[in-house]
# Entry
Amino acid sequence: MQLMQGLAQRVTATRPDLVNSDATFGELAWDWGKGHAGDGASGPRRLWFSGGELVACSCAHLPHQVRRSDGAVKDVTGAYLAYQVHPDRAGLVDEVIDWYDGTAAGTERTVMPSAADEFALKRWAAHGYETDPASLGDAGSWTQLNERDLTDVEQPVLPDGFRFRTADEAGPKAAVQAHLDAWAPSTYSAEAYQGVRQTATYRGDLHILVEAPDGTMASSTIMWLDEANRTAEFGTTGVWGWRGRCCCTGCIWRGRPGPVI
# Structure
């Protein structure tokens, strides 16, 4: 996982628009950590090296069953690929596709490359992959990269009675419940969170929650600090209850060193 995070850092440093959303510095740690309590950690992987440096990676999520927080068991019948290829080694995408086709043969296969990666999109199309129209709507599965300058961001002010808490302060039970409240029904669990906490780049002081006046957690996010690029990635961000429900994931903020909150 740390090798793959290093690849994500190198791509972020030069072409952040080409970092696939499921192979970012933070998303890799999140998926790897929670996967140790479920299906993610055991999925087949392939790494490509050049001169001892990782230049491409792929992880296939194959058909499996997951148990959700509402007690239901869901059958995941298709395969999904998370991958990243360094822009200097773009031609390796064909090897990634061949590996995926062989690993997930006989199943419906999906992948979500960056829309900015014109070369990769052409290669996926050449191998017979087509855009899923249903994925492009508001209820679809897609991500968007936004950038803004951080020099004029106002200091956040919470409503009366609300306060910021870190996961170190609030404890694992509150941190897990905050996620479940925002994303229910979810496959997240105390065991999954324990796996996330064990990843090398997780920091409890950067796992931020907002506590409501009644003691419940109204929102939460995990920030993954990429010190090499001086960026912080907000992942699995969820707000529940007090002002309606609003969830997002994968926001990357870049700016000068300063207070996180």
